[in-house]
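User: quick one - fold this with zinc ion bound?
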Amino acid sequence: DITKIRSRWVLDSRSNPTVETEVYTLAGGFGRAIVPSGASTGSHEALELRDGSREFHGRGVLKAVENVNTVIAREIIGMDSRRQEDIDKKMLDIDGTPNKSRLGANAILSVSLAVAHAASSTYGVPLYFYLGGMQAYLLPVPLMNIINGGKHAGNELKIQEFMIVPVGAKTFREALKMGSETYNSLRKILKEKYGSSAINVGDEGGFAPPMKNTREALDALIAAIKDSGYSPGKDIALALDAAASEFYDDKRNVYYLDGKEYSRENLINYYKELVQEYPIVSIEDPLHEEDFEGFAIATQELKIQIVGDDLFVTNVKRISKGIASRAANALLLKVNQIGTLTESLNAARLVTMNNYSLIISHRSGESEDVTISHIAVALNAGQIKTGAPARGERTAKYNELLRIEEELGSRATYPGIGIFKHYKL
Ligand code: PGA
Ligand code: ZN
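Assistant: Sure. Structure tokens for the protein plus zinc ion:
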């Protein structure tokens, strides 16, 4: 049984406060979780409760912390930490709003994840095993964001994330090594071509060079892959997160990208050209977050993995709508978009049953918390997106996956290109 819950603010990677919660059980179990925070958030995400006072420029989380330490603690203490669903349900009931605005999704999620950690600790097993058991064996292919644009960088790139995907690796360890080598090749190439300020990094640890258009960034990735001695496409493929809501003008119904104006149709055609020219296996949020119909067209025409992030916001209602209209073929799962572990697992189950791919994801504002590494393995998701292979809050997740792979031993499997089942080019 849960005997004690304690919450406090700690800092995230952008120096904003966020909620950390600790859960203790009678059997000596202990769990701790820190909640992440996005910058290019979807408008349908669960509500992140911020104080709005002068402190921390309005971004304080004292109310959320207080909600955990009082209202939530009162109800949850005495419950069995293994009854994750009941505990999550209890918090949803206390909150009573559709978007968790009363208690705050940050308050609720910190407890939800800490409870899972406490339960796994009570059993004396790692979280991935507690959640996934003997069936958890698949290490995720990392989609590593090594050039940052959009809201995550102070440059003019409109596409938010330019990622490398080590599909030719045999193990996760090898994949991470390939990513690191390519990252360091890119650093050298950017410095030579654009000067030393080009190797400053953005929010997710990728470089934020003073580039203006998409092809320029993709060319740099290809050059870096080659410089490291790898073959683009065969060893290391590419992926994009357009986060297109950020460059969409809803009054005129057009997108502003690479110095031009695009209609939906023209934008899809532009992606088509890029997919022909470069080994791109996945594009996330290619269109704005309300355009289910456009997502369906893009999915059908591009014949690669199309990922719904802002489109789905890890919400089963929006995912169901997407499945019904064949919008996208993969879900980006972010636990804080929905706010409980139970709902996140339900979202994962729903997409998996409908033959969508699943990518477990960090946020641009992160911490040393490694829960998502465990969730990725527990669900055999096969893909993880957690930034560049650099900066502590990103490497924490990758390094934890190294440990998990080692612990799984001969059971550990790295899927490689096979996990991109919707990539048909
Ligand atoms: P965010 O960005 O965490 O700033 O929302 C990540 C993403 O769009 O995938
Ligand atoms: Zn995204």
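One thing worth noting: The pocket of 2-phosphoglycolic acid (ligand 1) is lined by residues 38-41, 160, 241, 243, 309, 361, 363-364 (CB under 6 Å).
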